Structure formats: structure tokens, C-alpha cells
Sequence to fold (349 residues):
Amino acid sequence: MKNSAGSGAKRRAAAGIVGAAMLLSGCSTAPAAGPPSGSTTTAASPDPTPSPTSTPLPPRPSGWLAEVTGDAGRLAILGDSFAAGEGAGDYRPAVSGVRDSCHRSLHPPAAELFAPQNIANLACSRATTGHLTASQRLAALDPGAGPTTDPGTVPAQLEQLQGFEPTLVVLSVGGNNLDFAGILQACLLETTPCSDDPQLAAHAAEQLSGLEADLMDAYASVATAVPAPVLVLPYPQLFDEPDGDCGRLSTEEQRFGRDLINDLNAVIRSAVDSSSAPNVYYADAVEQALAGHGACSPEPFVHAADVSGLLQAADSFTASQELLHPTSAGYRAMTAELVRWAAEHPVPQ
Fold:
């Protein structure tokens, strides 16, 4: 991962002081029966999350997806927060007995398609492509009080996967390599519109330019570790086409965020297309899973960046991580798009 520009580092430092959003904090669900190393079934107190009742259950899988899901299927979830369910609540610790910033949720994308005991969600807050093959340091959480103790590290995600034989892998990674969190924090917290900051745009372009190679290495590592289909998730578009300001975000800043997500997904798609791994697929339908329910919509499926959301983020380390992540309803919508995508895209066995 490339070093951030000096101005970006200052922005992120200031953002931390006022309780800014950790936008790509990764999470996971309780692991499967016979859990791989580094996972745990120890339960933390459930975190509040908006009810998913406003979205129907995902459609029933058909074809090849029906064969690898259900009670006989085994799901491995790898990468960062958008794979693991940040924002959906019901978090389980990565380190037994410690509420930590891995924020592993019981409601990530695709979880509803599998028996709960057959899910190994190994994604983690702030994970980059490098954390698939290297350990990651965690921050402990004390609800309402911020970081308290140091729970140490979790092993590399692919190391944790050893001994678990998934029939399907869901992977979301790359946003933290880009420093997506720091860039959107600048939009939320600075008085100068991020859309008017040429240094910020240049920083994003620099990070994007080196991302494809990192992603291709990551896909190769995962494909070597597991023969099952690996569905690479794009980042869902968090903002609908704006029709006015949204809390701290101007119309121009919302478009800046939309463009940033689109550019990031374009690099991810290109990396999948260029990958030599035969079992890695780009599930493009997920890009628009939150359409009509973006962060500024009347019925958001995203933890919105309005005044209430920012105040909660300032008071709670957990809420700061959840800001601008899907709610449980949002992840259910992502699962529905995965099912629809699979029905239209046969995967060679």
C-alpha cells in the first residue's frame, strides 16, 4: 500500500480526534462447525442495528448456487467490512472474550443462504489485501468509551481458513488500500469541500494506480488456497444521484463519493478480468444493491451521514465504524443481488 499524502495524514489525524467514521472496518460472523484457527463462537453483546424488515428475504438460489449453499454448503467470508457485515450489528469477537474492532457480524452478505454453523467469517475491520496473508493488529472496544486495551493481533485470514473447506467464498477487499476511509472522512469533517481539493483527488488517483496489482496478487492467493468459487464483491454504491445537500455532504461531495466508488469498482473489475485464477468472479450486480436506499435517501439502507449519525459517531467507537456502511437491510439487499447474479452467470465446476 502506498504512503498517503501529507495532507491526507493530517486529515485522518484530525478525523480521529472528533470521532470520524472508520468507513471500511471489516467484520465477520460466528465461524462454522469445526472452526478454522483464529475464529471464535464467543458472543459479544448484540449491537443495535436498524431492522431488516423493510426488505424481503433474498430469492431462493438456483442452479450452481443452490448446489453450494443450504445446509450442506460452507461459506468463507474474507476481506474487509463490506464482506463481513460492518453496520449490521450482532458482532462477535475475533479474540475470545474481548470486544474488538474486527466487528464480526452475524448478518454479512450471503449469510442467509447458509446454515449459521457452516459459516466462517474471517474478514476484519481495516483489512487490506495484505491481511489475507499477514496478521492484523486489532483495537479493543469498550462500548461508549472508545479503545481501551490492546487485544493483540489476529492471524492472516488465509491462515485462519486452514482446515475449513468452503463450497463458496465471498471476498471484499481493496478499499483500505485506497484509503477510502480517510478520503471520505475529509468530505464529512472538513469545511472545504472535498470535491474542490485537488490534493485529495490526486491522492485517490495515486492509490488507485497501484491497486490492481495488489488485488491480482490477493486473488491468486485466495484461489490457490481454496478450489471453491470466489465471488469478488464490488463496493455497493452508497449515494444515489444527489438532488440536494445531505447533512455535511454537499451535492458536489456526494458526486465525488459516487465517482470514487465507481472508480474503485472499475479497478476491482479489471483486476478480476486480468487474473489468471480460474475460480474468481466479479459479482457486478452488487454495485447497485442499495439503489434508491443510499445514505441520503428517505429510507436509507446505509448508516447515514446526517447530523444524528455524526453525533452518534462522535460518542461511540462502534458507531464511528458503522457510519456509511450498509445496515442489515442493506446486506440483505446485497445478498439478493448475489443470488440474481448467480442465476445469470454459470460458474464452471
